[in-house]
């Protein structure tokens, strides 16, 4: 049995792991480079569910499977919803989609994560191909734009030493503290900053004209759109100075530039437009298809692969899910009661569902209300494959140990397929299907076949190979007397897995005492949390990390205008005195 596997978590880095003497260790090769992060360093400390239960009573796995079969038999297929999240990012997780789609049940559509930004990327470029960390390593200047690498992509850090770093983030993050230029932009002002940067680039004759003629001939029209922005008022609105815009342009001119974006920029209704405007700035600089240049985002872990799981099915929103349209909801690898927007709505509608089945590793808000709880096997106890959304690596996740607890996604699907007379291939056949997409490198590691080192070398994947610019601006209204809610990722949790944060962070000058409990509310709900001061946060914002219990009482279940994504930072909040 090979002792290598990979981290299954929804994370840019997709670390390669060696399992030795019952311990998880970092592989010394590639991006992993000998270190993991707190999640995997302390993986064994986090208690997982060992015993299935039905209506609060512990039962055996055999009884649980029988119960599951009974529940599914007693519902019409169209009364069943399969709701799957990304607690484990490996490819075999999708095998349950195969069962539920074949059974005739509903799957979900839309995204809690990066879908708005991805929609913007596809609208402009025609596809979503990422700039990899290996390419970022070759750049001279990096702009971290709404990405917090110390927390969410720490394996980038060794690659960017000695580079010029610019950070655009409303929170003064670790990377911002050490940046050559830090812009503490007002939340949700990035669209205008990206457009003004492009406008001033043009005014300064600093655009890559040759590139624009070849791959973005509509640039003049876009430039006109950028001219519709009133400079003085917009600078004030963004809390950015003309001097700072000049500094950015000076720093990026004629340099190899990587613009590294995260989900922070697109947790808003017009998230797609924000991403597209940042891409347009990259296009004006001629960054695409060149070594060490480009715009990085979350890419797609599925790029250059196909699924062996036929998942054609009816689908309903993953963001604003009408759970109560269903008699039975099967939740896998997700904690929707905490992580979906507008938790109070979710709680209310899910309370009307007769059978809520939770198939996961940890106890949480969702396992608490579930009728039937089925523990999964952890990644060390099952075979799988992991592709990355950030780089081109392909990891075979070899099973490392037998576990008496839980059931794998494949075994559960096999049981259900057999129970309901649906054909299913062997686990090995599915794994082999995925392995076909890999190619071995000289050092023995694998990458995904056909993914390019530098994407868009010969133009874009739009119909005519040219970049499509934004043509108009959405008018987004916001309440000016309230505070922005910043709800980013925490270092010690992976969304709601592991050690979850429990505070609200705000600037000390707002006048609330440390550890005093305050009540925060939005149009949708209220949450009470103890205060921690943090002067790295703007005075017009408060910060509550993803995974904090109750944070999503405050958020909206509306979709982004493009990309069917959640918009966790759209609603403003007030502190009730
Ligand atoms: N430790 C840890 N790592 C994780 C995760 C985790 O929960 N914990 N989650 C994983 C997942 S699911 C994802 S999607 C990725 C996300 O990885 P990131 O994109 O890095 O995630 P966030 O922390 O949500 O947002 C990044 C930054 O955006 C900033 N930001 C917020 N609003 C704005 C804005 O309006 N404009 C600008 N310019 N910046 C803004 C935030 O202050 C934050 O510093 O991380 C993955 N990695
Ligand atoms: N306020 C706020 N809310 C957010 C965000 C935010 O930044 N702020 N971020 C959003 C984003 S980007 C994302 S991606 C979502 C994430 O939201 P979810 O997808 O709900 O993610 P988690 O909270 O990590 O829950 C993962 C679940 O998967 C289970 N699990 C882990 N491994 C396995 C396995 O191998 N098999 C099975 N069956 N289960 C497993 C865990 O036990 C846990 O219950 O949250 C979104 N919600
Ligand atoms: S969560 Fe990310 S950084 Fe941590 S071990 Fe997994 S892949 Fe690596
Ligand atoms: Mo995410």
Structural summary, described in words:
The chain is an alpha/beta fold and 577 residues long. The strands form 9 sheets. Strands 5-4-16-15-14-6 form a 6-stranded mixed beta sheet. Strands 10-9-8-11-12 form a 5-stranded parallel beta sheet. A 4-stranded antiparallel beta sheet has the order 17-18-20-19, with helices on one face. The radius of gyration is 24 Å and the shape is globular. It folds into 3 domains: 4-109 and 303-387 and 393-448, Rossmann fold; 115-296, Dimethylsulfoxide Reductase, domain 2, CATH 3.40.228.10; 483-576, Barwin-like endoglucanases, CATH 2.40.40. Residues 10, 113 line the site of molybdenum atom (MO).
Give me the count of strands. 30
Strand content: 15-25%
User: How many domains make up the 3D coordinates?
Assistant: 3
Question: Could you say which overall geometry the principal axes of the C-alpha atoms support?
Answer: globular
Give the end-to-end Cα distance, rounded to a whole number of Å: 61 Å
Instruction: Give the strand line-up of the largest sheet.
Output: 5-4-16-15-14-6
The kinds of small molecule bound in this structure are: ligand MGD, iron/sulfur cluster, molybdenum atom
Average residue-wise pLDDT = 97
CATH level 1 class label of the largest domain: Alpha Beta
Number of helices: 18
Largest sheet: 6 strands, mixed
CATH topology (level 3) name of the largest domain = Rossmann fold
CA radius of gyration: 24 Å
Shape-level CATH architecture of the largest domain: 3-Layer(aba) Sandwich
State the helical fraction: 25-40%
Structural class: alpha/beta
Quaternary arrangement of the chains shown? single chain
